Structure formats: C-alpha cells, structure tokens
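Final report, results section. Input specification for complex C-07:
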Amino acid sequence: MSNPTRIVYLLDDEPGMVKAVTRLLRTQGFQVQGFTSAASFLETYCPGSDSCLILDVAMPELDGLCLQRRLTHNGILLPIVFLTGHGDIPMSVRAMKAGAVDFLTKPVKDVDLLRAVRAALARAAEQREAAAISARLTLLTPREREVMKHVIAGKLNKQIASDLGTGEQNIKIHRGRMMHKMGLESVAELVRIAEKLGIGRSED
Amino acid sequence: MRISDNQSPVMWENGSLAIRLPHGKGCRVARGHRMACSLVAIFIVLTAVGATGSQPKRVLIVHSFGSVAPPFTTHSIAFETELVGKMGERVDLDEVSLDMARYSDSTLQEALVEYLQKRQSHWQPDLVVPIGSPAGVFVAQYRDRLFPETPILYTGMDRRRLPPDALEKNAAFVGENFDVPGFIEDILQIAPGTKNIAVVMGASPVEQYWAAAFRKEFEPFTNRINFIWLNDLSLDQMLERTRVLPPDSFIFLILLLRDATGVTHNADEALQRIHAVANAPINSIFQHELGLGIVGGRLYQAELEGIESARIAVRILHGEPASSIPPKVVGPLSPRYDWRELRRWKINENHLPPGSVVLFREPTAWEQYKAWITAGVSLCLVQAVLIFGLVANLVKRRRAERSLSESEERVALAADAAQVGAWEIDAATNEVWVSDKVRDLFQIAPGTTVDYAAFEERVHPDDQPLRDSAIKRAIETRGSYEIEYRIRLPDGTVRWISGRAHCISDGNGRSTRLLGVSMDITERKRAEKEAMEQRDELFHLARVASLGQLSASLAHEITQPLSIILINTQVAQRMLAGDTPDIAELRDILADIVGENIRAVEVITRLRALLKRGETRRLPLALNEVIEDVLRLLRSDLAARGVTVQTTLADGLPDVPGDVVQLQQVLLNIVTNACDAMAENPQKDRILKISTSAQPGKVRVSMQDQGRGLGESDASQIFQPFFTTKSHGLGIGLSISQSIIAAHHGRLWAEPNEGCGVTLHMELEAIAPASS
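Structure output:
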C-alpha cells in the first residue's frame, strides 16, 4: 500500500482554538491546515490524501453539521472529528450517524483529541484501501466474482466446480485471475477485505 | 403770656420787664439788632473801599442820673440800640453821667465841665445827646463852653425844663410834655371814690422841681382829693406810710431817685417795695412800670422816646441841621392797665376808658389753659373719633380676621394635610419669615429667629449646590423654581423636601423677596424609591431569565477560552517533556494562555454585571461600545443559531446617559428576539443588521432582522407584556426593554421592513458634546 500524505484539516471560527490545536497536532508530527471559515476550507481542500477534518459545530454562516452533509453529498469521504462548545446528545447522534469519527466537547484533553485524529486518519486510510478494492472489484468478470464469493465462503476448488457445474481446472483459472485482479496473494487477505467491504453477506 | 410792644426793643417777659443794660462802649447791640449790626459792618467795609479813613460818627450821651436810673436808663438803651441799628455806618458812642441825683453842687458841675473840656481835646463828638432834664439843663447851661458847634439833641425831658433859647442854636428836641392833671384824671377814672392820693417822690433837685410843678398842677383837685406828700420822707418811712393809708387812697409815684435822707434809689425797685406793702393801689407815669405794681393809665414810654430821638440823631449825624428838625413831643400811650392790680383793688373793668388795654390778665382756668383745654378737648374728641374708628375697624377687622382666620384655618388645614410650609425671604436683608409648619419641617425651635443660614444648615450637603443655584437663578431672573432636596434634621434623620418659590420684585429692584412653600415629600420619595426598586428587580429578573435562555451560549463563551488554555497548556507540557523544547514557541503559548485567560475573565465580569441586582446608575455611555459588548457576549449564541450580524456603527456619536447593564439587557433582548425570529430561515438568511446613527440631539440604534415579521399583530403590540410568538419565553422581554428605554427618557419602537422582518429602533437622548 502506498503511504500518501496525511493532512489534518482544522476548521473553527475561533482563531485561538485553531492556533492551539494546530500547535498540538504539529508537535505530534501531523500536518495541519487550519481555517476559521468553511469557505476558505472548501477552497483549499482537495481529496486524494489520507486526511481528516476537525470541525467546530457552531459557526456563523455554515455550521459544522451542514458542512458535513455537504461533503457527503459531494462524495467526499473525509473523516470528521466534531469539536463543540456546547454539544448535546441529539446533535452528536446526528453527527455520528452521518459518519463522524468522534464528537468531542470542549474543553478537550489533548489525548482525546489526538486519539480521535488518529482514528480519523486510520479511517481515511481504510476508506482509501476500500476504495481501491472496490475499484478492483469492478475489473472482475461475473464468473470470477462468483468464484470469489465461493472462495470467501471457504469452499474448495472441487466443491466450487461442482456447485457451478464446471471442471475443477476452470475454477483454478478463474480463481487465479480473480486473485490477480484484486491484487491479493492469499485467501486470508481476501477474506479480511471481503469482511471489511461486506462482500458476500448482503448477497447471502 | 408774653406781650411785646412792636415799637420797643424792650420786651415784657413773664410779666416782668427785661431791660438790656448797656455795658461798655462801642457796638452795644440788643440781640434783635445783631443782624442789622452785621449788615452795618458789611456796609462799612464796602464803603470803606471808596472812603478810606472815614471816621465813625461820635455821639456823646449825657446821662442825668447814672447808668441805672429808670426811666432814663430805659430811654438811653432804646436810643443807643436804635441809633446803632439805623445809622448805617459806624457809631462811636461815649457817655458821661452827671449823677445829678447824688450831686447837685455847682462846684462839682464846674469840675465836670472842665473834665469834659479836657476829654474833648481827645474826643470831639459829632452829636451830644443829653438824656433827662438835669442833663439837658446842664448841657444848655454849659453848651457854649463845651460844645459851641456840636449839634445837641435834647431828649428824655419835659420841654418846660429847658431854657427858652435852648433849641435855637443847632439843637433838636425829643421829649415829653406831661399832662399832670391827666394823671389824676386817670386815677379818678378807675377809682372814682378816691379821696386821698399819696404822692411818692424823691428829694433830688429835679424831683424838687417836679414836686413843685405837680403840686401846682394838682391844685384844681385839692377840693375833692387830699394829696399826701411823702417827698420829705425816707423810703422806709414812705413804705411805713403807704402801708397804713386811709381808705379810698391811691398812691401816685412820680420819681424816686433820691429820698429825703439822701439815699439814692432805683425807682423801679422802690416801686416794687412799696407795692409789696401798700394798702392802696399805685399809679405812676411810665409805661415800663406797668407790671411792677402800678394799676395803669395813660403812661409815657421812655423807650419810644429813645427810639424817636435816635431817629432824629441819625438825621443830624447824616448832616441835617438840628435846628431844622421840629421839636418832637412824645405823648402818652393809650391807656393800659395791669389786670392783676385791677383785680387786687377790685377796680371794675367797666370803669376803664374806651380803648383800654388790660395787660397781665391772669387768665381763668379757661383763659389760662384755653389752648391746653382746647387741645385736650380736641384730643379727647380726636381720641373718641379714633377710638370709634378703631373699634369700628376692630369690629371690621375681627370680622375680616374671622373670615381670614377661617380661610387661614382652611389653608392651614390644607397646608397641614399637604405638609406645606410657607416662607418668605427678603433677598436684600436676608430677613426670613416662616410659618410654623416650616419650623416643624426644618425642626427650628419656635420663637427663635430664623435667618437664611438656619435653613441652609439643614440642607443636605450634597443638595446644597442644587438649591443654591436654583434660588440664585430665581432671584436673578425674577422667576421661580421647583426643586427637590434633602434636609438633615438635628437627630440625623434625612427627609425629602419639595421646594417651590417665586421671586417677587417691586419692579425697581428696591425690594426683592422670595415667596415659597416647602413640602415634606419623604413618603412620596420612599414610594418612588420602592417602585424604582421593584422596577429594577423586574428588570433584573427579566435579565436573569434572558441570560438563562442564553446559558448554553454563555457557557460556551467561557469554555472557549478555557479550552484554548487547556490545549495550549498541554502542548507546552508535551514540549517540555521532549529533549529540546522550543523556547520561543513556549513563550508564544504562554502569551496565548494569558490572553485567553483575560478573555474568560472579561466574559465572567460582563455576565456578572448582567446578573447583578443593582440600582440604576446613569453614566455617559458610548452606544457603539455597548452594542459591541453585547455582540461579544452573544457571539457563541449567534454562531450556534447561525445568525450573522452585520454592524454599521457610525463614528463620532455623542454619548448617551444610561445604565450600561440595562441597555445591554435591551440590546440582548432585541438581538435574541431577532435570532428567534430568524430560526426557521435558511442560515444564509439569518442576517441581523445593526446600525447606529446620530439624530438631532439623539442617538439611534436600528436592528433589522429577516424574521417572520409582525404578521397580523400591530407594531406596538409586541411591546405588550406576555405577547409572544415563540414557543419559549414569557413574552416580557420587549415590554421590559421598552420600560427600560422609557426610564432612560428614550424611545423604542418597531417598524416592519419592506421585505420580510422587522426593524427595531431605539433612540436615546444624547449628551451634548463638550464644546472645545
């Protein structure tokens, strides 16, 4: 896996907060970009890196939750850590449901914030990985997809051949092509990814 | 009673003759002629300029019997006084006395002639005036030797006594011509039953002459009157005789210069002594004796003779030839009588000749005290009238007083009920009048005098300047004032007084008074204060309620800096845990921490002020700053509600007087209301525009929202208590806001916008900017 740049975006209308959090993250080796308005953030942000966003909920013009919705709407999967002065439970539930990594209340402890940031970045990495797998999946032929499902299900080649009504040799070829297209070397890896992407379960 | 003969400088005073005796030479002037004398002196000075060295006219008076020998003395005094007074220029008077009563020896006369001749080598007279027949006879006899060229004025004598040719040579005459039978007739006129007349007379040569003359003249009466001649007696013997005269006697005193025993007498004194003892009435010849004891009749006046002779002397001295002046005989005066003597001798006034004058009338009680009685009666009358008037007036006044006192009572009742005291100050004299109520109010003891200072010292020191300036202005402008001030009573209690006064002036500034009333308004003030406190409490409760609604945002306002502080602190800790901490960064962090800390404290302070229950305090405020303060406080709330505030604050606005907390409360209310109104708007339409502007004498704040607007409701309705369109809140926010602005003498009103929403305007009186 490649190791793309990891950027922590920070949006808070309070400059003091932006400054302090930036300071904290930089000491921990994160690359940080701070903004005090949503507009300036949206101008600067470009997807394609393992990034996350620390977002203040209460902001004039465009509040945090609205921004989250807008990003999702635009297909930007940016893990968000909400940081709020006066969050309440309904607000946090809404945020979490919309895919927020965490919902932290000020004043926040550095460790909590750092853990949330790390989690967000991990999520970003996973999302990038998942996206890559999804892209590979599209390369598979229907036969190769079927074979993959059976492999994930833990069936042997002979069982798969029998289920699909073809020869064992054919199954071996499809299986080999499938593993190649997916960039995988072991069945174990395939199973882990399949679990992560939820492949197979929904189709059960 | 005092009688003065106009023709005479001799005055009757209290019934006795006051005679001014000559003393010394020169300008001997009776009091009445002093002015004339002064004029003479002035005249002399004036004429002296043109006639330098002119000598005063020299007049030699030759007395017969010495200087004190009535009636001659009377004559000479009148003469000298009149002469000096009428002369018009300086007169040098000299006198010489023959003293003929005493000395009648011819050898002495010769010596006297020699003496006078020697005198004349030093002092040559311009006129010689012998007074009395002895002097006249002497001068006539020795004239050729003594005064051959000098004019002579014979006077004070009977023409019969002079030598026949005496008046032919440069001489004039002023004298009497005694009507001797007349004297007897006068006596018989008043006392017709007179049988004896005792004749009192001296024994000097002149008296002897007259005795013979009179004896001769009396002869026609001797058949009916027995003349008792006392001229050969001493005065004492005369007194003895006159004491025991037979009934129907009269005493006739002719002259008494020297009695038979050679003792010289003052005739007037002798008369008085005789009068004291005599048992019969007395008569005499000369007017000056009236009052000394004679009854009276046709009397001869020596003064008149003196005055007449002086007038002729003036003419002679002015150059008129003495011979050209006809001899002048001065007759007797009209009959005059002494009332006392008439009464004493029971002489009926009906017997007095027609045209008689009765002098020395001792008036009856009525006559004597006529003036007093008249005055007394008049006074009584006047008093009676006055008393009647006063009584009438009193009755009227009583009536008026009754009605006045009734109205006063009513006024007093009203004043008492209203706790009103009246007072008056005279600005010029500082005199103060106060009603009893004022004394009550100011606790000034009854009976003590009240002045301005007594008032002044009661006034609370804080309120003195206010009161002083009000009074001063009222006096200066002749206007009035109405003030409320505190007084401090001796026991330390403080009371509120409402003072109203009006300055009254009489127009020309002479009198300026301040009329006023004072009223105790402590109770009203207490009620006002209570109402104020209740209102403040209401404001406070409303404020606390609004802040309660904002508690989350407000908490955020505090947690925000605290969060920043926490993060920064932890960063610093991490850095310090490392091997090579970045000192510059640490310094930066600490500065940020301090900054955020201050910010947190400010927020708390602001909040505490808003939450505090305090009494209203008016201070000059910059409205822009108040707005910015409120927006800072509401920042989190505005952010949380997604409301954007656009401010357009005018520069250079004047301050407004206000209570900062209450005005913040109003702004906070309006802003949160606007936020509520825009809650359902999309966030981009949640814009609150706040602007400030200067209006004439005022400062205006306008807050324009884009909310639901007023809907069906009236623009004024939103200020009604409990009016609300919101699901939360009591609806008292705007009502209270309006009360607060009203208490600031300002105005708060709503105006629908053109599009959507409402604009609330708040206007406050501006403090006039200090002129530079």
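The mean pLDDT of chain A is 84. The longest strand of chain A covers residues 50-56. This concludes the modelling results for the funded period.
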